[in-house]
Design goal:
Blueprint lengths: L2 H4 L4 E4 L11 H9 L2 E4 L2 H10 L6 E3 L5 H13 L4 E4 L12 H9 L4 E4 L4 H9 L6 E6 L4 H9 L7 E6 L4 H12 L3 E6 L7 E6 H8 L8 E5 L10 H14 L4 H12 L3 H18 L1
């Protein structure tokens, strides 16, 4: 038995940039150069990335419709000792992308499966949404019709975790309307084109974000986040300013005392509130 027959290859699941080509790890570049073959969701998109980094490894397509059939062929190559990297169009493979069948076949064949972590639109969006991140649930794309979407959302009404979805730009407004109607006027974040030139993040109650987006020409990839049931999103500057105005109308408080009161009421770091109160009062004095 030859060494190649004795030792199986490794299947690497390689995360690739979701937009900005600089968002790739050194390890990912090395693995993509070293493997015998790169299987990819779309060879045209992957070749752009490979050309950017001077990677000349052979590529082959592996998308939803052919994954199970062609996956068996690839696992055969892995069993013969060839190592293969799998990449999706962007981000982390298997996260609303193909790759699951390939991974299952590799595991069943006792082929090593190794993650090469990196970009993920879900994680990137969570970090900037301003919603709780200690508990979150990702559901991929929302159903395509309003009736099915509303039925699906009703099943999530009592889930105490930040809800994360992918959404197409042409359905984003309709989905926000259904979220408002089923889940109420919760805090949301709509992140669009993350890491790209026209990156945009809209935050606030769903009614406010919806008002901004209705009638707009919406393009690009969207990750939509919704406040979970019973979750209280951290107060933003606007809410703190409202508290400042209300308390100042009723009481004559020092900056320190005002900040302490508001920080306690909103469960926020006192320094953050204090710094904002200082800026507000300084701005007022300059305007007088």
């Amino acid at each position: 038995m030859s060494d190649r027959q004795a030792k199986k290859g490794t299947l690497y699941l390689v995360s690739t940039p979701i937009g900005n080509l600089e968002d790739i790890t050194l390890r990912a570049i090395r693995i993509l150069k070293e493997v015998a073959l790169i299987a990819c969701e779309d060879t045209r998109r992957t070749r752009v990335l490979l050309a950017h980094y001077g990677i000349e490894t052979a590529v082959t397509s592996l998308y939803d419709e052919i994954e199970r059939k062609k996956g068996g062929v690839l696992v055969g190559k892995l069993a013969e000792g060839l190592s293969i990297a799998y990449v999706s169009d962007a981000g982390t493979p298997l996260i609303s992308d193909p790759g699951y069948s390939l991974v299952r076949l590799a595991i069943e064949a006792r082929v090593p499966v190794v993650p090469v972590p990196g970009p993920s639109a879900v994680i990137a969006a969570l970090t900037v949404a301003g919603l709780p991140t200690d508990r979150f649930a990702f559901f991929g794309f929302l159903p395509g019709t309003s009736s099915r979407r509303q039925s699906f959302l009703r099943g999530l009404r009592d889930l105490p975790a930040t809800l994360v979805f992918y959404e197409s730009p042409r359905r984003a407004v309709e989905s926000l309307r259904d979220i408002r109607d089923v889940l109420g006027d919760r805090q949301v974040a709509v992140t669009r084109e993350l890491t790209k030139v026209f990156e945009e993040i809209k935050r606030g109650p769903v009614s406010g974000v919806l008002a901004e987006m209705e009638g707009a020409d919406i393009r690009g990839e969207i990750t939509l986040l919704v406040q979970g049931a019973g979750e209280k999103a951290p107060a933003g500057d606007e809410e703190i300013e409202q508290w400042v105005r209300r308390l100042e109308e009723r009481e004559d408080l020092s900056t320190k005392d005002l900040a302490s009161r508001i920080a306690a009421e909103l469960d926020l770091p006192r320094k953050r509130v204090y710094d904002l109160v200082v800026r507000l009062r300084a701005s007022r004095r300059e305007g007088e």
